[in-house]
Amino acid sequence: xxxxxxxxxFQKARNLIPGGVNSPxxxxxxxxxxxxxxxxxxxxxxxxVDGNAYxxxxxxxxxxxxxxxxxxxxxxxxxxxxxxxxxxxxxxGEVELAELVVAALPSMAKVRFVSSGTEAxxxxxxLARGFTGRKVVVKFDGCYHGHGDTFLVKAGSGVVTLxxxxxxxxxEDIVRNTVSIPYNDLPTLEKTLRxxxxxxxxxxxxxxxxxxGVIPPAPGFLGQLRALTAELGIVLxxxxxxxxxxxxxxxxxxxxxxxxxLTCLGKIIxxxxxxxxxxxxxxxxxxxxxxxxxxxxxxxxxNPLAMTAGIATVKALQAPDFYDExxxxxxxxxxxxxxLSEQYLPGAVALNRVGSxxxxxxxxxxxxxxxxxxxxxxxxxxxxWREMLEQGVYLAPSQFEAAFVSAAHTRQExxxxxxxxxxxxxxxxxxxxxx
Length: 435
Ligand code: KE4
Description:
single chain; alpha/beta; Aspartate Aminotransferase, domain 1; Aspartate Aminotransferase, domain 2; 2 domains; 7-stranded mixed sheet; globular; binds ligand KE4
């Protein structure tokens, strides 16, 4: 239960900040719990203002792949802090992080840093529209690309979590220029892209969906998407804000061998500080001001502290066995979850996993798109979430998000979490009997 200082802080916060939080999903509304306020974090753990410790599988919604307060990151930022916090002028760090990003993602011949994933996706869509002279953006039901007007149509993450149909405040003619179609549905994709009445500038896709819960691309889906967009001169944007540097140094595009025209990044490349990025082919990126006429700007873009955290993080990810070790931990954890669900909740949990991102959907499955994802029992997920919090495990406070294994999780901590999960599943099974 949320007690003491968290409760008092939440009451105070709600008078000052909408919903008491600076991002809706953090309010934990969909899991029927007031939020705990976090005071600090270390490695695999969060510590709330009342001194309670939690094994963290939220990972700040993805950035903390190394774990919290990683010495290489914290020390580098500490050093940078002594040199000031922002200059509004170019710095060596921006060049260094740009070199690291384009070396990891060859499709990004050039990259522009911004301060959030939303800025990255908004800018990439503006660039695609400017490059093609067309207006329509095609996205996929349940995918979330930040809170830009264009994207709040059948969006995932907090939009689906809170059951908000779209979003008031988005003008009709914006909505008209966004077409949202089912994820993994190749016939609908082909029909839509070949629809001559649609003036399509770009398709934006999460190459592995993370915002309706984790949903991998169906075999051939990304390949067919690439082939169709190339044939029709439509810009293909991979939104790798979650998957970038999560699924490997090459992200999802490296894992699946697809070369998009533009890529959006965020989360991990900031190491927990505010960074987003978009980049791709020179013929596109050289249209961005001041090189070209398409405008995008930002006071704190390329902030020296954020660049420092990003550089330290990306360098740490280049350790020889980093991703193999992370994969082994995630596979072990997922196998344990599957075995427990089969034992206590047979046929009632469908676990989707790609690399170190995963979601246990409380439904029969398979979960392959937004429609099947939304068959999940969100009441049961909420009960699971509250039980795990009580036992000191912090999961994503929404059925439609991802849980992340980080390099900081030890095998022992994963085993302990599985024991706690067993206790939670037993309780859920008992509740089912009395339902
Ligand atoms: P930000 O503006 O939140 O940095 O990034 C937007 C964004 C863009 N693209 C993808 C694939 C994303 O997942 C996100 C943001 N992710 C959500 C949770 N999955 C952020 C959590 C929140 O809104 O508080």
